């Protein structure tokens, strides 16, 4: 059983309608993806302004200061305030060479 029309004009009309419908569906997909991306971004908390990278081990000694969001800080990092970051750098803790927190804080190295 064939549910399509047998003649060319009606087949062309059906083809045009399907193309237009597909275009509308694709537009809605783009909109839905944008909304989902916005919701995902809104669900993530913003990174802290400054982080302290900690060493491996039970005590996790501070090893470097990073600008918040720097990927090289790794998973062993904790957020710190601007004052704590400045104090840590003044006490000789290494600044990250990639994100340069000392430059961001206005400390000349």
Walkthrough of the structure:
- InterPro entries: DUF6233.
- It holds the Pfam family DUF6233.
- The protein is an alpha+beta fold.
- The chain has two domains: 1-44; 50-104, no CATH class.
- The protein has three helices and four strands; from the N terminus they run H-E-E-E-H-E-H.
- The protein has helices at residues 8-43, 82-90, 101-104; strands spanning 50-54, 62-67, 77-80, 94-95.
- Strands 3-1-2-4 form a four-stranded mixed sheet.
- A hairpin with a 7-residue loop joins strand 1 and strand 2.
- 16% of the residues are buried.
Please supply descriptive tags for the structure shown above:
single chain, 109 residues, alpha+beta, 2 domains, four-stranded mixed sheet, 4 strands, DUF6233
Layout: helices, strands, pairs:
Layout: H1 8-43, E1 50-54, E2 62-67, E3 77-80, H2 82-90, E4 94-95, H3 101-104
Parallel strand pairs: 2-4
Antiparallel strand pairs: 1-2, 1-3
């Amino acid at each position: 059983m064939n549910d399509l029309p047998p003649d060319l004009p009606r087949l062309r009309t059906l083809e045009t309608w399907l193309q237009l419908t597909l275009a509308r569906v694709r537009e809605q997909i783009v909109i839905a993806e944008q909304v989902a991306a916005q919701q995902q971004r809104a669900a993530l908390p913003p990174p802290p302004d400054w982080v302290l990278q900690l060493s491996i081990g039970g005590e996790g000694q501070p090893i470097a200061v990073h600008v918040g969001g720097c990927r090289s800080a790794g998973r062993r990092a904790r957020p710190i305030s601007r004052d704590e970051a400045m104090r840590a750098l003044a006490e000789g803790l290494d600044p990250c060479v990639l994100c340069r927190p000392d430059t961001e804080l206005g400390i000349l190295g």
